[in-house]
């Protein structure tokens, strides 16, 4: 056996002892079972064990909020369930920003965040709506719930596969956090009301509609092109303060109305663009 073959076999044995890859591409240390990721340090690849604490702790907190929402809904405490989903939204917005600010992004964190989002913005809102209203419809109720949950799963899967290939100014389909906010806002607004046919119909429209909008090709403004670090007029600061005051006065109504308007903005602007194209072609 030549020296080159011996060296190749030795390196392969070392890699097998140090770690093996799972289906997601992560490597694991066989002895400790820890995640092993390769990072570039001064241009050279360096293998590091473990995961970053701060961003993944925030993701775990978001996951817990989604889980807590399901438990609260199962116990009939629907206002707490709805609030927990909004808390999860805040935590979900923080974990990615903290990871970027502290330079602690990782492939593990991206995968973990996506799984947590599926629970917090997919399963939790669907189950909250089901326990609150849709369970009275029997099989129709759980079918509508499943449309929402499946829509969230497909939306997250599509988002993960389109990272880096889409215009950052727009989302394709209603983002799952916005869909979750529509459902949670509806429950939060009307949780104390007695069951009524109009309210059940409204729940069907909101839950089923959000499920369909998530898998649609309708474009939604992402607001990622806003420069938060640049200078803004003083009036903009006053507007932000006013927004916080309005939300504080009646958070349930304001949040539900705001996210419902955002959900409807996609189809409205899509129809507007289509009508303009038709007018241009006819002219």
Automatic annotation (TrEMBL):
TM stretches of this protein: 51-71, 170-193, 199-220, 232-249, 255-272
UniProt entry tagged with the keyword Metal-binding: no
Comp. bias regions, Basic and acidic residues: 1-31
Topological relation to the membrane, as annotated: Multi-pass membrane protein
Catalytic activity line of the entry: a CDP-1,2-diacyl-sn-glycerol + L-serine = a 1,2-diacyl-sn-glycero-3-phospho-L-serine + CMP + H(+)
GO cellular component, one term: membrane
Subcellular location as annotated: Endomembrane system
InterPro entries given in the database record: CDP-alcohol_PTase-I, CDP-diaglyc--ser_O-PTrfase, CDP-OH_P_trans, CDP-OH_PTrfase_TM_dom, CDP_ALCOHOL_P_TRANSF_CS
Annotated GO biological process: phospholipid biosynthetic process
EC nos: 2.7.8.8
Entry keywords, A to Z: Lipid biosynthesis, Lipid metabolism, Membrane, Phospholipid biosynthesis, Phospholipid metabolism, Transferase, Transmembrane, Transmembrane helix
Region entry Disordered, spans: 1-33
UniProt-recorded Gene Ontology molecular function terms: CDP-diacylglycerol-serine O-phosphatidyltransferase activity
Family: Belongs to the CDP-alcohol phosphatidyltransferase class-I family.
Protein name as it appears in the record: CDP-diacylglycerol--serine O-phosphatidyltransferase
The species this protein was found in: Marinobacter salarius
């Amino acid at each position: 056996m030549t020296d080159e073959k011996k060296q190749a076999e030795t390196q392969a044995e070392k890699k097998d002892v140090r770690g093996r890859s799972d289906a997601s591409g992560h490597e694991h240390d066989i002895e400790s079972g820890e995640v092993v990721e390769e990072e570039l340090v001064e241009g050279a690849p360096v293998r590091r064990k473990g995961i970053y604490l701060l961003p993944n702790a925030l993701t775990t907190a978001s996951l817990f909020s989604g889980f807590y929402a399901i438990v609260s809904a199962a116990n009939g405490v629907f206002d707490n369930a709805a609030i927990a989903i909004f808390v999860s939204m805040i935590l979900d917005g923080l974990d990615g920003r903290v990871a970027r600010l502290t330079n602690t992004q990782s492939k593990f964190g991206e995968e973990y965040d996506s799984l947590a989002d599926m629970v917090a913005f997919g399963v939790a809102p669907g189950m909250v709506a089901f326990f609150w209203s849709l369970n009275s419809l029997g099989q129709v109720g759980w079918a509508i719930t499943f449309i929402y949950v499946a829509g969230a799963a497909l939306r997250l899967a599509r988002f993960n596969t389109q990272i880096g290939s889409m215009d950052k100014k727009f989302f394709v389909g209603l983002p799952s956090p916005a869909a979750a906010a529509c459902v949670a806002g509806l429950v939060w607004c009307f949780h104390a009301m007695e069951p009524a046919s109009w309210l059940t119909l409204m729940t069907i429209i909101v839950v089923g509609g959000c499920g369909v909008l998530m898998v649609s090709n309708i474009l939604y403004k992402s607001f990622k092109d806003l420069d938060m670090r640049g200078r803004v007029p003083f009036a903009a600061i006053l507007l932000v303060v006013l927004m916080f005051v309005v939300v504080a006065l009646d958070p349930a109504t304001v949040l539900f109305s705001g996210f419902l308007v955002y959900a409807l903005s996609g189809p409205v602007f899509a129809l507007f663009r289509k009508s303009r194209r038709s007018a241009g072609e006819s002219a």
